[in-house]
Write a structure and sequence with these properties.
Blueprint (H helix, E strand, L loop, with lengths): L2 E8 L5 H16 L4 E9 L2 E11 L2 H13 L2 H4 L9 E5 L6
Antiparallel strand pairs: 1-3, 1-4, 2-3
Length: 98
């Protein structure tokens, strides 16, 4: 079963749109990464500076490899110019019996 990932980017006031522009330019690389099945970007309807990625990877290990690759390529180095708080990543387990 695919791994669902919820990533929250709490941006500085007014920086959400800038982060979305950066993501627009860089998410094609994510979509091409091995194991990536889908990735969608959202902004909070009540707080446009809260950016959320809803990701689907074949396995958690695929997403962890992706994060390691992003760290190696300097992704985390650009985040301080946008974020007001820590990037939050959650790995979600589905409960099909509920």
């Amino acid at each position: 079963m695919s791994q669902k990932v919820h990533a929250v980017f709490p941006c500085q006031k007014g920086k959400g749109a800038e982060l979305l522009e950066w993501l627009r330019a860089n998410l094609p690389e994510t979509r091409a990464f091995p194991g990536c099945e889908a990735i969608e970007a959202y902004s909070d309807g009540d707080d446009p500076d809260q950016i959320i990625l809803w990701e689907t990877f074949a396995e958690r290990a695929d997403h962890e490899a992706y994060v390691a690759w992003r760290i190696e390529t300097g992704f985390l180095d650009i985040l301080p110019r946008y974020l007001a708080g820590e990037l939050q990543i959650s790995y979600l387990d589905i409960h099909t019996d509920v």
